[in-house]
Specification:
This protein has 157 residues and is mainly α. It has one domain. It is 83% helix and 0% strand. It is built from 8 helices and no strands. The radius of gyration is 20 Å and the shape is flat.
Length: 157
């Protein structure tokens, strides 16, 4: 067997394995990070005054309202993310929230994106944003409520 043929067979086997692992990978990401969003939002509600003071220190307008909106977004859309419900549309508020977090509280990391990428990659919002972008790109996977409802509607129609 020549090296090119061996390479193509190996690549084919690895692609099949990746296809088998993908739904579980997406489920794990959704369960872990969806729960983290929920807990973060719940923490903001539990310590609303502290969160409001922090938002005020960032010179955000209407800090209490913004704290409530951020906490609500994390709780509601974190649970939707966890369940895989609402697909990519439900992830847009989380992506928006995380972009705002970078712009308001992680400006140094954002400005250092090209000159010192480690600052950007180690900033608090990064792993949350990375998880949401992964699921946004690949979809919530077959172990999601979206997939379950899609299967139900295709068999009912």
């Amino acid at each position: 067997m020549n090296p090119a043929s061996l390479y193509h067979k190996l690549n084919h086997v690895l692609a099949l394995l990746a296809g088998l692992v993908r739904p579980l990978f997406l489920l794990i990401i959704r369960l872990y990070w969806g729960w983290q969003f929920f807990l973060t939002g719940k923490g903001k509600f539990t310590h609303l005054e502290r969160t409001t003071d922090y938002f005020a220190s960032l010179n955000l307008p209407l800090p209490k309202l913004n704290a409530i909106l951020a906490a609500s977004t994390e709780v509601v859309f974190g649970l939707l993310f966890l369940a895989g419900l609402g697909g990519r549309v439900a992830q847009l508020p989380l992506i928006g929230l995380l972009v705002v977090a970078y712009v308001t509280s992680e400006q140094a990391a954002l400005h250092a994106f090209f000159s010192d990428p480690d600052k950007f990659l180690t900033a608090d919002p990064f792993l949350f944003l990375f998880a949401v972008v992964i699921v946004f790109v690949f979809g919530p996977g077959q172990f999601s409520l979206d997939a379950r409802f899609a299967k139900r509607s295709s068999t009912a129609g």
